Structure formats: C-alpha cells, structure tokens
Amino acid sequence: MLDSKSSAALDDLLVRCAAGDRAAFRRVYDLQAPKLYAIALRITRQSSLATDAVQETFLQVWQNARHFDPKRGRAEAWLVGLVRYRALDLIRRAGREVLGAEVPEQVDQAPDPLEQTALAFESEALQRCLAQLDPERRRMIELAFVDGYSHSELSTRLGVPLGTVKSWIRRGLEALKRCFDE
Amino acid sequence: MTNPPNPPLPGEPPMDDFDMRAAEFVLGTLDDEERRAIEAARLADPDLAAAIAYWEERLAPLADTVAPLEPPPDLWNRIEAQLPPVKLALTSRETAPHRLAQTVAFWRGTTIAALALAAGLAGLLLFTPRSDLGAESYAAAIVDQQGLVPAWFAETRADGSIVVTPLAKIDRPSNKDLELWALAAGAAKPVSLGVLPAAGRYIVPSGKLGDRNHLKLLVTLEQAGGSPNGEPTSAPIYGGELVATN
C-alpha cells in the first residue's frame, strides 16, 4: 500500500504522463502493474485476460492521463477503476462462466475482505461504513467490487432473487453514502 | 430478510439517480452498454467525473485486499509496442544542426541492433536468387528507436533496386505519411526515397541510389504526401543501415 507521500508521487507521475513523459509512464507501470494485474486476475480468473486488461489499462492511462485530476481523487483509485472496468469488459465479452481453470487457489480460500481489510485498510471510513451494513448486503458489495460479480451472478451465488440483489445493493450504496458524508 | 440497519431517515432525500448510477458504475453492477456509455461520458462531463471519483476514491481500498502479483514479464513490451510513435517536436523552427544531432543520437542507439537484425533476417530469408551470385547484395533491418521492433526489411535486388518489405503493422496518424530517406556515408543531407505505402512492399528504383554499402535508410513522420521541402521536417523514428550479405 502506498503512503500519502508515494501517493502524491504517483499523482505527479500521471501529470508527467499527460505531458508525454515516457519515463514517468514506465515508472507508473513498475509501481502499479503488480497490484493492477492481481485485481484483474481476481476478476477475470484467467491470466491471459488479466494481462489484456492491464495492457488496455496502461494504454488508456497514456491516452487519458490528462483527464486525471488529483483534486478529485487519488491516482491509485483512478487506476484501480480503470483496470476493473477493462476486466469487466473482458469477462462479460468472454463469458466468465466457462472460465476458471486458472483461478489461483488463494482466491477461493480468500476470507471475507472485511477481515483482511482490518489489517490492510488505510481507509478507516470504508471499514467503519461497511461494518455498519447488514453482513449479506456488505458481502454483495464486496463481491461486486473485488470479484466483479454481476447482479445475476450474485443472485445465483447467494441464492437471492435478482430484484432483491438490485435493491439491496442500492440500499447498501445509499447507506454507505450517508456514512461517508457524516 | 432483516431490516436495513441504516433506514433512510424520514424526509431525507435518497441518493438521486445521477449519483446512484455513478455508484453502480464504480461498483461494476451496471450492464455493459450503460457502463461503457458512462465511462465515455465521464471524459466530457465534469459533474459525472466528480461523482465517479467520489466512489472510486472511497471504494478503492477494497482492492487492497487483493495481494499484488507480478504480471507476465513481456507485458511491458506489449504495452510499449502499442504506444503511438514518439511524439515529434514541432520542427518548423528547428535548425538543421539540431536535426542532425537528433539523427546522430538515433544512430548511436540503433545501429548495432539493426546490423545484428539485418544479418539475422538476411540469413533467414535467403532471398538472393542464384543469378545474383557474384553481384553484391545488401540488406538492412529498419528498426525503431530502441532497436527493439524491426519494422521493415530492405534488400537490394540484382537490378539495383531496393525492396522494402514491412515486417509489422506500423500505426501512423491518419493525416500523416512515413517517408523513407537515404543518407550516404559522410553525406550531410538525406535524399528522399518517397513515401512508404500504408501496406505492402515498396520498391525504390535503382536510379535513386548511389553506393549501397553502409547506406543509411531513415523513416520520418511527415505531412500527407511527404515533406514539402525535400528535407526531413522531423527526427527519424525508424532507421537501418545496408550491409553486404554476400
């Protein structure tokens, strides 16, 4: 995890990427590729798709670095978003249901992220606000964000009707928003 | 079903649709079409960009629960190969010496790699017909600035022409052309060999060339149709040097 100093350094590197600085771009890759690859692999569950997602992410970073605004949020959060959207594109296109041969073992054995986050989070707000949610609702939000589960996948996996999944997630997001803004 | 632990307070407005869509976009639960539409709209809509950044910022720490993992070692090369050609400085104001300096710097980096590639490719292709035996033949790999990506293979034929065969798909801006130049050993200025076609082989007629040995072949990015003044208007982005193959 990056501390605030290296987070600011990453912001600075992205600003330099926007100006066409390839050395800065390489540095962003060196700093962030392992994290982004792991996130993509968790969602796609296939190393070739995860690799494609990271490749597309970095091309997007190069092209769109000027759209990154450090005043809106941290560079890390922007990058995490980009790689997740690319990974989601790829699994929805490739159909994840038939994949899964390359799932690393640790994925299936991964404990509830909230338990890990107690150790790893820098964001106390997220931890505190997630903890206020009904556990089932919290799990849905975690599975959607970290594993890229769609509404219908959540419905199947958790045995909850599709409409219920949608409304629980919305209420969960509303509850988070209230908590974040307190 | 349990009661929500955080029921909306009476009179409190729920999140509006705009904010909810931003939240669901970030969470990843929108359908594909809507997700792509929002991602595109975000670039042009500052309010949407801010709403998305709000959620990305607050939910991103969830991703810290995934342990980092080294990506495949060739991933960086794949990314780098897809970057557009190095942005060339506006060169209309540049002086000739400056361009020459760029050319020299280019050669310092690429010549050894290009020579090795040319020798390897010539050996692989075995292109020289028997009737050419006795005539000198030359070949060059025309490579990028890092000397990593062979872009064209150039080879002389018995009639003295040079055949330039693309080895990779080279992206170029739609309103630009890639122009091929020859720089003779010791010469100060390169001579234009014409604009390279977007696809397929390009043949340089024999009359255009002097001594083939150690002739440098350069490629620059020029306005459509080629340089307006018969000189490169930008630094070379690809290059190679003809060497004897027999």
Number of domains of chain A: 2
Question: Low-confidence runs of chain A (pLDDT<50, min 5 residues)?
Answer: 97-111, 117-122
Q: Considering DSSP H and I runs of 4 or more, what fraction of the residues of chain A is helical?
A: over 70%
The total strand number of chain B stands at 9
- Put simply, the count of helices of chain B is 5
Compute the separation of the termini of chain B in Å: 83 Å
- Largest sheet, strands/sense/barrel of chain A: none
Principal-axes geometry of chain A comes out as globular
Biggest beta sheet attributes of chain B? 9 strands, antiparallel
Instruction: Work out the strand percent of chain B.
Output: 15-25%
Distance separating the two termini of chain A: 26 Å
Question: What is the chain-wise order of helices and strands of chain B?
Answer: HHHHHEEEEEEEEE
Instruction: Report the portion of residues of chain A in β strands.
Output: under 5%
CATH topology of the largest domain in chain A: Rna Polymerase Sigma Factor, Chain: A
Question: What is the structural class of chain A?
Answer: mainly alpha
Query: Quick one: overall form of chain B?
Result: elongated
What oligomeric state do the depicted chains represent?
Answer: heterodimer
Percentage of helical residues of chain B? 25-40%
Average pLDDT metric of chain B: 76
Biggest chain pair contact, residues each?
A-B, 75 and 53 residues
At CATH level 2, the architecture of the largest domain in chain A is Orthogonal Bundle
Please give a quick description of this structure:
The complex is a heterodimer of chains A (182) and B (246). With 182 residues, chain A is mainly α.
List the keywords.
heterodimer, A: 182 residues, mainly alpha, Rna Polymerase Sigma Factor, Chain: A, Arc Repressor Mutant, subunit A, 2 domains, 10 helices, B: 246 residues, alpha+beta, 9-stranded antiparallel β-sheet, 5 helices, 9 strands, disordered N terminus
